[in-house]
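ok trying again, last paste got cut off:
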Amino acid sequence: MEQLNFDTVILGGGPAGLSAAIYASRGAVSTAIVDLNMLGGQPSNYLELENYPGFQVIGGYDLMEKFEEHADKFGVHKFPMQEIQKVDLQTKTIYTKEYEFRAKTIIIATGAQPMKLGVAGEKEFVGRGVSYCAVCDGAFYKNKVVAVVGGGNAAVEEAMYLTKFADKVYVIHRRNELRADKIVQDRAFKNEKIEFIWDSVVKEIQGDNLVTTAVLENVKTNEISSLSVNGVFPYIGMTPNVDLFTGQLEQDSRGFIVTDETMATSVDGVFAIGDVRTTPLRQVITAAADGAVGAVYAVKYLETYKEAVPSR
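nice, full thing came through this time. structure:
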């Protein structure tokens, strides 16, 4: 196993990680990004973004490509598609199948993933009618009927995207009003292909080889009903990608990493940025901002580190 030494190793190459890489490398410290997947993170799967300043509308993949090109300009070392086996935050060591990364600071930018419904049939029908990415799988549902579960921006925007293919899109929400931005709601209410099912949750997903039915429960009346659908797309929230770090640093009740305003965690020299940390808003712009803050303070930490400890 080859050993590689860097001042800063960033775990995760989404908007937070790439932003941090730009700021860290501009601070004249050796910087590497290590990711389980290709760089770009979740936004690479978004068909369009219309709330990132400077771009009225831009494809998610296109925006992340610009982030990556910017990082390349400053000589960031990139290690995508790494099978990360262990992370020791105390010794600042990351073990992958190919490398042993040793760092003086670690910036965690591993993001979050869609929360599961946790109901019977969900796991069994993943890829056969259950999907967490409308942009990835929407085209499979041409002329079909699908259900989106949730009431936030992601749920409503994905529902509208699915109307490009499906004949009918149900939006199932446990409350009687949406949490999505007003402008997003207005568009959805005007879309004739979308029908809202209020005060309801999915209790079970049924089918044979493919999904055929979503079993619903009205949370106010407890009435059980069946909805004939070909696909179910849950968008009920996010859960942090923290399996590699759990127990090594402070986390909140949902597992998100606790940081201060400088993005510092409870472990000296370890920072957390983007969707993986406790934050009131999870957007590309806030992830990028976190990356800037975290990297600047990682560089400041390194300045102190260099004064106290001879460089390796």
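cool. The chain has two domains: 2-113+238-308, 116-234. The mean pLDDT is 94.
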